[in-house]
Amino acid sequence: MSAQITPDLIGGPHQHVSDEQVDEFIGRNLAAAGLEGKKVALVIPDGTRSCPLPLLMRALHQHLVGRAAEVTAVIALGTHSYMEPDEIARMLGGDPEELYPGIRVVNHEWADPDMLVEVGRISGERIAELSGGRLDVGATIMINRHVVEADVALVVGPVFPHEVVGISGGNKYFIPGVASQEFIDMTHWVGALITSYDIIGTTGITPVRAMINEGSELIPAQRLAFCLVVESGTGLIEAIAWGTTEDAWAASAAIAAQTHVEYVDEPFKRVLSIMPERYEDIWTAAKGFYKLEPAVADGGEVIIYAPHVTEVSETHHEIHEIGYHCRDYFVKQWDRFKDVHWGVLAHSTHLRGKGTYDAETGVEKLRVKVTLATQIPREVCESINLGYLDPNEIDIDAMRADPDVFVVPNAGEVLYRVK
From residue 195, how far is each of 60, 162, 189, 231, 320 by CA, in Å? Predict the structure, then answer.
């Protein structure tokens, strides 16, 4: 029988929680959770999220190993590329087998059917209710085997404004984090129908969050979470919440909405989003656009400056076939695009932003120009309907001095809005 879980929180907007406070907080709450003799699946972020994972893993190792019967940490990749051993070691502060003996660290192998287990089904009628009538297709919910076969699924990770769900974290670590591509695609497409512009940074239960919560409730394991608000750029913890995946998420999301949203007086004409190297392709570095779009003027431009990026997507090559377009470009030509993975269509609309498409004339009008300054060649950028700049010709200091350019260091996590 599961112990009664009492929600807990330390820290707050723009505060800093010490390493000692984090360790005490994790230890105290795990001790009260009744995990003795249980199989625990930790669900942790991948390398695209700012998070002091070595600090958290040390505390989890100290307070779980020897108490729980078995501990497996599953990296919540969604459909991102599997992480290589050296990438995992870099994220976790060293070789996990040496640092955290007794905790097995594995990728969410979303492309391997044997690693996915069906936990239930949501009807098309129910999907229509949850999505506000945007979609009426049923879905089989498939979740990572390690998570399904655990007694306790413990999410450990940060929350940020998010282009699909509103505020990330909580049950989102299960769906899309450790789910199959089918339902991931469906939730992302509902987010695209709403548009990133309108949903990003929204607290509360958005239609996408409602779908994710419904699917997560089918997981047989007890679902608990440590949800963190992490200061972007420093990795310092501003707050950490404990409870069910719903309670811990709600407490931390309210703080993230204050600490990770910047309000500006006037919309930007031109933005240079400088992308950290944790974003290894445009599929992930596109966050440099998502987080700025609401604060860019009509006719403005966002430049994604990522000289280290060499490809559009490591895993979703269909994007080269369809390119980047606004939502209505796909909706008004649905018979042409309905068989493309809906998650790819969603990513396309998220990076291209708001716009219109006239099916009679074939004219697409896009609100903001999107330009890549990467190692991706000009001809590739143009073929996928994006602009191109040679990253070697960009003078960041000169752009900082230009009153018409807003330069964002460490872009991708803080959301900008006009007051």
Answer: 37, 11, 9, 26, 21
Per-residue pLDDT tens for 266-290? 999 999 999 999 899 999 999 999 9
pTM (two decimals): 0.92
Among 13-27, 46-60, 194-208, the least confident range: 46-60
164 and 208 Cβ atoms separated by less than 8 Å: yes
pLDDT score of 1 more than 70: no
Question: How many angstroms separate the CA atoms of 249 and 206, rounded?
Answer: 13
User: Measuring CA to CA, which residue among 131, 206, 194 is closest to residue 170?
Assistant: 206
Contact 183, 215 (CB under 8 A): yes
Domains defined along the chain, listed by start: 8-259 (3.40.50.11440), 263-418 (3.90.226.30)
Spatial distance between the Cα atoms of 271 and 396, rounded to a whole number of angstroms: 11
Find the helix packing angle between 19-31 and 53-64, rounded to 10°: 40
Task: Kindly state the average pLDDT of the residues 212-240.
Answer: 95
Q: Which two tokens stand for residue 296?
A: 């860019």
Enter the tokens of residue 231.
């200061």
Q: Determine the distance from the C-alpha atom of residue 100 to the mean position of all C-alpha atoms in its chain, rounded to a whole number.
A: 26
Q: How far is CA 235 from the centre of its chain?
A: 16
